[in-house]
């Protein structure tokens, strides 16, 4: 499903050049659940942005299914994001004046989706919030707000779900609930899930852990092997 070949991403900051990704080669099969770990500045979020077609490589090649992403223009990237990719963010990014259902409907409004109210309710039911559709974010706990964020990502029925520090602002019980939802989507619905995280307990729920330092992949291990690593 995902294949990166010697991908480099460079940013220019004044007179300085920052190489956020430095020759990354990585393949992820359809239906895998992969955790990406590394310290701040290691390139995790840059990698996630590229995989999610929010950015393109400076050099190298990236294939998502049969599409060579770096050859697509802005409209092509937007179409790929709309059809294939769901995003979950650490900070939820919910609009405070809208209900949970209204927030989940937003991607369908922009894309002209039909049956949007029914689809939004179905997405909220998938994350266990079928009884919270009319609640606004301030009436929901942090974990429930993150569930709304996941439902919003699911409402387009993506084949790829990208979660960037999805438990970063949550207590341990809420974190477990969120990771269990993501693991269930992977195990029971066959969705490809990629999680950026600093937390070993979160990464351990994935089947595979990719570790990064200074823009490069330094290890790529099955979860069983990784858990035995100090």
Task: Explain what you see.
With 230 residues, the protein is of the alpha/beta class. It has one domain: P-loop containing nucleotide triphosphate hydrolases (Rossmann fold), CATH 3.40.50. β4 and β5 form a beta hairpin.
Summarize it.
The chain is of the alpha/beta class. It has helices at 44-51, 74-84, 100-111, 116-126, 142-154, 172-189, 200-203, 223-227, and strands at 2-13, 16-28, 33-37, 59-64, 67-68, 85-89, 160-164, 192-196, 208-213, 216-222.
Distance between the termini: 31 Å
Radius of gyration, CA atoms, in whole angstroms: 18 Å
Q: What is the CATH domain class?
A: Alpha Beta
**What's the CATH topology label?**
Rossmann fold
Strand-residue fraction?
25-35%
Architecture in CATH?
Answer: 3-Layer(aba) Sandwich
Please work out how many helical segments DSSP would assign: 8
Structural class assignment: alpha/beta
Arithmetic mean pLDDT: 90
Strand order in the largest sheet: 6-7-8-3-9-10
